[in-house]
Amino acid sequence: MIDKRLLRASRRVSSLLIVTVILGIVAAGLAVAQAYALSHVVAEAFLNKAVLTSLWTPLVWILGIILLRGVVQWLSAIVAQEAAIRVKENIREQFLKALIQLGPLYARGERAGELVNTAVEGIESLEDYFARYLPQLAMAGLIPLFMLFYIFPLDYQTALVLLVTGPIIPVFMMLIGKLAEKKSLQQWRALSWMSAHFLDMLQGLATLKVFGRSKDQARVIGRVSESFRKTTLSVLRIAFLSALVLEFMTTISTALVAVALGVRLVYGKIIFEEALFLLVITPEFYLPLRNLGLRFHASLSGVNAANRIYEVLNQIENLTEDTEDLGNDELCLQSGSKPSELELAKANIIFRNVSLVYDADGLAALDGVDLEIRPGEHVALVGPSGAGKSTVFSLLMHFIKPTKGEIIIAGTPLEQLPAAQWRSQIAYLSQQPYLFSGTIEENIRLARPEALDSEVREAAEKAAAHEFIMTFPNGYQTLVGEGGARLSGGQAQRIAIARAFLKNASLLLLDEATEGLDAESEHVIQDSLSELMKGRTVLMIAHRLNTVCQADRILVLDHGKIAETGSHQELLQRQGLYAQFVREYRGETA
Ligand code: ADP
Fold first, then answer.
1. Which of 249, 281, 316 is where one domain is finished?
2. Strand partners of residue 352
3. In the chain, what is the straight-line distance between the N-terminal and C-terminal CA atoms, in Å?
4. Cβ(103) – ligand 1 distance below 6 Å
């Protein structure tokens, strides 16, 4: 009933939670005082025929207690809320950090919609756990106990009834808990599945429409939401059923106490005022237990989300165990001489017998690659899809480490270089440049946040982006990304090139776009790319023959191995895979 990891997460707000529980206990104490005052007033008014004037003082007391109780409960709720917000914030931060550390390769292997659902909805649903369930758990344990201590000396018979009936509620909860947990897990899975599916569909809308499959997908979404509806209803059914049973049990138990008190009252074994007090206080005894039952159900979706959150967080622990340092820059800083920025910029990049296997039982994406790239050299990677080209990039960007062999830069294995230091040497241009929601300026500045305005502008000019940026009414302050101006593919590319200019890194990793841009954009982009490549080491995944031809050296990858290497002419003469690639290319584009 208590998730240990969540309990650990709540330690940082333990003082707030303790205050919540103390306030809850104070509120319960006030309930006792209220019951006491009430039974006194009723006894005075009905049995002793007291007049209103003599009852004023206790009546004011009752009113005061009711008000104070309200205030204390409100305070308790606020403090609990604050605690929950802090824990949620912390968990969200950890989750995001974990995703960043795990890197793009991990996120690509997961379903984005499901991760988003966990990060937003999932973490949000933890509020019920921290703000309501956890404090209630303590209160349900303490308040009835305190009340028993108070009631026992007063009337041991009632206390005995309470003592016997009280524990039935938690036992019942435990019985129904397993079933509720199972149903709630199904509901959470259905929700994640639905979010993931929805995002997949949105992202693939163009493809689906082109292939005339959007209706099928709408049907799938319909089915997924139907299953979500069903699981939600079954969760609600259990929650309502359990609320009903709890209500029933507390009513029966209260009735039991009432009957016992009534019988003793008839036989004059107990005085009226005391009996009334006990009767009024009995529901207050069960209240924390009943609330615990209700809150338990509400907290379940948070627990399920937590399971997923910790699954991602645990990946990092595995990561640091397995690979020691990937993405964890502090750990990379081992003693010994480290190459300076300048040495890194001027160093050869050496792959020594590098192999990479993604899945333990899968085939090698790279298989014993030996490679040396000299500073300033322009190397084109070609090869069929799945040959391992992107894997070379992922390795160079420090997103993964070789399963075998090593990559050496300036005499140091890449794994031992702090990832951030090494990445500062790299500019990466992907096939589809990613623009964040924000202004054009912010998007360019991403490469070097501290750059001067003039530098940003200069970079944009070099990337042939300045002109079109100035056609927008807000110029560099134009919002792009979601909800912002819609840039054409070519314009987005130019912003990305401006970023690379601004970064001014010594190594350029270029994943050439396969999709055709319009002839004019392509021309402009080619020009600025050529300018960008000057004086830098360039490794590009090339798809177009004219880019490939211009490279100093071409590496032909096939099934994770370097099949051929040489210049365009040399490779053509060999009549191998490259010559075949060229023939196919010419055939297709002729
Ligand atoms: P290319 O870029 O030449 O198309 P990749 O480097 O992407 O080739 O892929 C090489 C091989 O590794 C392929 O068989 C691909 O299926 C596999 N692969 C690539 N990325 C992953 C990954 N994240 N997890 C598992 N396998 C992968």
1. 316
2. 406
3. 69
4. no
**Ligand 1 centroid vs 365 CA: distance in angstroms?**
6
Contact 387 CB / ligand 1 (< 6 Å): yes
Does one domain contain both 221 and 182? yes
Which of 381, 382, 391, 403 for mutating ligand 1's site (highest number of atoms within 8 Å of CB)? 391
**Residue 485 counted as domain residue:** no
Tell whether 354 and 223 lie within a shared domain: no
pLDDT above 60: residue 78: yes
Cα of 392 vs centre of ligand 1, distance in Å, is 10
Q: Encode pLDDT of 348-407 as tens digits.
A: 899 999 999 988 777 889 999 999 999 999 999 998 888 999 999 999 988 888 999 999
Residue 472 inside a domain? The answer is no
Angle, helices 519-533/453-462, rounded to nearest 10 degrees: 120
The one-letter amino acid code at 170 reads P
- Cα–Cα dist 20/35, whole Å: 23
Binding site membership of 385 for ligand 1 (Cβ less than 6 Å)? yes
Tokens of residue 58, six digits? 């206790």
Alpha helices in 324-413 (DSSP H): 329-332, 341-346, 389-396
Q: Which amino acid is at 68?
A: L
Q: Domain limits at 221?
A: 4-316
Is 160 close to ligand 1, i.e. is its CB under 6 Å away?
A: no
Q: How many domains does the chain fold into?
A: 2
Q: Assess whether 350 and 272 both reside in one domain.
A: no
pTM exceeds 0.85 for this model? no
